[in-house]
Amino acid sequence: MYRLDSKGFTLFELIVVMMVSSFLLISLFGFTSRSINSFMKMQAEGLARSKLADGVFRVSQVLRSSNFVEEANADSFTAYAYFAPQDLYTSKIRYYLSPSQDQLLADVTPMTADYPVGTLLTGQQKTVVIIDKFYKRSSYPTFQYFTSTNAELSAPVSSMDSIDNITVNLYTKVYQATDEYKSSTLTVNMRNRKSNL
Is residue 2 part of a domain? Predict the structure, then answer.
């Protein structure tokens, strides 16, 4: 029986308040979950773009400063160039994909003087990871080679003097479990390459 002077809530009122509260909490949780997932995806994409931009910059600097090309394949490239701004002499630098093709690596072997005078210091060779979580797209080369008339050279290139431009195609995965990737393509003119050494 209902009394006008009673204090407190009835069982029905408590159930209604709990149902409304749980509906609001479920809606809030769904919104928050979507927002967090969206933020995490944006952060992963931004990080992938940043690492890709850093890798493209490093590779382009080396290619621009290359003064002699030793090897030109679809997924590897070897040249003599300055690897870091503080280097006194050129180094032998070989870019290649790891055996699992999930990293772009560079073997850097310093020299006693600039190429072709200096000798290689093989005991000081180091391997540098240029792009981690590299994504190798099938039938897409990492390096493409072009003549001065923009005719594409088939890899492996046999005549290194015919290379005038190199296009670098780099890809990195956004998430390791998916095939979603970010890409960057850059064409570099071989302006410092010597053809009469």
Answer: no
